[in-house]
């Protein structure tokens, strides 16, 4: 084949230049404009109609840019008018082309902006990778957390249209206060796309998974892309949650040291078991996990170094001491009160805000005459009824087996197609409790009455995962309404804990007057947000949710102070300390049906007088 000709080379060069887009087109139009200006001026000089070189060039240029200038050419010579007419026609073609090029270029730029592919030039922002219903809960909590900042930024990268994401956020969260949300379109598991949201300068990264067949696979890919995908040395921490416990080791390996991955189902099973045995506990956990009320903070207090922790317990009037974060990173909840606070250790406190944490130098007033020392009753066999079945039920049964006394019995009633085989496999693994199974529809009133729910110590209503979430919540609501009506007719209150798949159904569920509501996605979202703001909190909540060590209990108030006697919370906290426990609040049984606190008073002012009556509870951190 012969070598390309000059014409072919020139054409190839021209095509490559034109393919560079709007900038190249504007460049060519500029060159053509200058060339036409020079040609017009040259012809004017040749025919003797020019006014010097610079003046002639200016006259030619003005005729190209402004077609109206030709109306004044009738007073000059015929050659001038002909040359300028031709120049003006060329100018019209150039200007028309320029308008078209600019319009096309602007449309292309607007389309690029709509696609959300531009770099997020922010620093110390929060990055959310992925999209699900959890994103609205996380954004609302981050808005609360960032309220004291002048300008906070949340950058979201998801495989969705940028404008659609912004419209949904604007519709569900109209008031973002001081927080600015930036949306970008891309694959949350692609390192190149992740680079758009500038993770290298972010303060934290939250990973969300979509409702696909295998969400954990997406989570692992995102973890690998973030921590090993060429993002450099990440200074921020990464948080996420797996849906299946068996995928937790792989996710933690993918995330490495920079990531904090939690097991969503296992965590919810632990919460459900603890809550069913401690009425009001879900309110306590929700208050600790969201940014709207009291939160957990970690502060260093040099004034208390070398002093026993019992002094830290009474040194904060409006904050509640719950533990210590040692200088080597260990988290100790409800530590021995006689242990000294070492230099470098941080106190773990519950407070309404970090500005509310103030060391109180005054001596606490403790009423010794109001303190009582009543022994705890031994654990007795319990009967638990589980209505419904989903992926968490196996873990719920395993957790129950670690809490209940020998001789306890749990009855499972559901029409889930996989439940019978699962119960057959789980039964032999139970150490202290017996399992019974009945396959039936939990929304059937006749069935519920035949179960005699008033004879059970605890009732757990679960959302089935073999139907869509809204239908599952509807069936749960029907079951709860039946239980409420049966409770009112019998005059006996049932201790019911229910699970709502969708937080929007929580308000509807409140009319059933069940004791507690566990909303899976919401609590997981709250936990991820808290951990993103403070990674050390993952260790605190891991201790609180575990059956080993200290957990949150609501115990009879008359085991701590004399009922009907006005006391301050310093006295209650001191009584709990002498039992090896840490008091963080109380619950008034007379207010148990009043939303949103349901009688729970967390982190009260310790100097304010209160009166605890029979049936009221003290909220403590204890080992049993």
Automatic annotation (TrEMBL):
Keywords: Ion channel, Ion transport, Membrane, Transmembrane, Transmembrane helix, Transport
Domain CASTOR/POLLUX/SYM8 ion channel conserved: 266-360
Topological type in the membrane: Multi-pass membrane protein
Protein location: Endomembrane system
GO BP term, pick one: monoatomic ion transmembrane transport
SUPFAM superfamilies: NAD(P)-binding Rossmann-fold domains, TrkA C-terminal domain-like
Residue intervals passing through the bilayer: 25-47, 80-106
Main location: membrane
One GO location term (cellular component): endomembrane system
Stored PANTHER family: ION CHANNEL POLLUX-RELATED
Designated name of the protein: Potassium transporter TrkA
Species the sequence originates in: Glycomyces albidus
């Amino acid at each position: 084949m012969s070598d390309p000709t000059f014409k072919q080379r020139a054409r190839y060069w021209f095509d490559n230049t034109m393919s560079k887009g709007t900038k190249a087109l504007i460049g060519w139009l500029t060159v053509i404009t200058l060339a036409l200006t020079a040609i017009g001026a040259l012809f004017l000089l040749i025919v003797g109609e020019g006014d010097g070189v610079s003046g002639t060039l200016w006259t030619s240029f003005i005729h190209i840019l402004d077609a109206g200038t030709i109306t004044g050419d009738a007073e000059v010579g015929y050659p001038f008018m002909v040359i300028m007419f031709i120049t003006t026609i060329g100018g019209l073609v150039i200007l028309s082309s320029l308008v078209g090029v600019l319009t096309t270029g602007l449309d292309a730029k607007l389309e690029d902006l709509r696609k959300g592919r531009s770099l997020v030039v922010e620093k110390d922002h929060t990055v959310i990778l992925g999209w699900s219903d959890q994103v609205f809960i996380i954004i609302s909590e981050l808005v609360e957390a960032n309220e004291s900042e002048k300008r906070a930024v949340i950058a979201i990268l998801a495989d969705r249209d940028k404008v659609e994401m912004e419209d949904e956020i604007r519709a569900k969260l109209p008031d973002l206060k001081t927080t600015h949300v930036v949306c970008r379109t891309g694959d949350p598991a692609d390192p190149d796309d992740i680079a758009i949201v500038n993770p290298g300068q972010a303060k934290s990264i939250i990973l969300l998974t979509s409702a696909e067949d295998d969400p954990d696979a997406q989570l692992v890919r995102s973890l690998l892309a973030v921590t090993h995908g060429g993002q450099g040395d990440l200074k921020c921490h990464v948080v996420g949650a797996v849906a299946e416990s068996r995928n937790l080791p792989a996710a933690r390996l993918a995330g490495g040291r920079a990531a904090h991955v939690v097991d969503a189902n296992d965590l919810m099973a632990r919460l459900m078991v603890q809550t069913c045995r401690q009425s009001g506990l879900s309110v306590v956990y929700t208050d600790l996990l969201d940014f709207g009320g009291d939160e957990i903070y970690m502060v260093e207090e040099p004034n208390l170094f070398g002093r026993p922790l019992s002094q830290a317990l009474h040194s904060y009037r409006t904050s509640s001491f719950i533990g210590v974060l040692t200088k080597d990173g260990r988290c100790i909840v409800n530590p021995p009160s006689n242990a000294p606070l070492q230099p470098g250790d941080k106190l773990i406190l519950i407070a309404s805000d970090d500005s509310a944490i103030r060391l109180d130098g005054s001596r606490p007033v403790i009423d010794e005459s109001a303190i009582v020392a009543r022994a705890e009753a031994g654990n007795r066999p319990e009967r638990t009824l589980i209505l419904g079945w989903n992926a968490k039920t196996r873990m719920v049964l395993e957790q129950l087996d670690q809490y209940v006394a020998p001789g306890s019995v749990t009855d499972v009633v559901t029409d889930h197609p996989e439940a019978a085989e699962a119960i057959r496999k789980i039964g032999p693994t139970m150490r202290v409790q017996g399992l019974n199974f009945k396959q039936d529809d939990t929304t059937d009133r006749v069935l519920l009455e035949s179960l005699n729910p008033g004879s059970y110590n605890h009732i757990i209503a679960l959302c089935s995962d073999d139907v869509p979430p809204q239908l599952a919540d509807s069936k749960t609501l029907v079951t709860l309404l039946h239980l409420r009506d049966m409770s009112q007719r019998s005059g006996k209150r049932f201790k019911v804990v229910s699970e709502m798949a969708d937080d929007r159904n929580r308000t509807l569920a409140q009319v059933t007057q069940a004791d507690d509501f566990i909303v899976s996605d919401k609590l997981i979202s709250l936990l991820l947000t808290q951990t993103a703001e403070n990674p050390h909190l993952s260790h605190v909540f891991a201790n609180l949710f575990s059956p080993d060590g200290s957990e949150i209990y609501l115990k009879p108030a008359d085991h701590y102070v004399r009922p009907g006697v006005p006391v301050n919370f310093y006295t209650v906290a001191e009584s709990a300390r002498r039992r090896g426990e840490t008091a963080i609040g109380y619950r008034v049984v007379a207010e148990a049906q009043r939303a949103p606190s349901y009688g729970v008073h967390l982190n009260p002012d310790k100097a304010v007088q209160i009166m605890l009556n029979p049936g009221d509870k003290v909220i403590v951190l204890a080992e049993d």
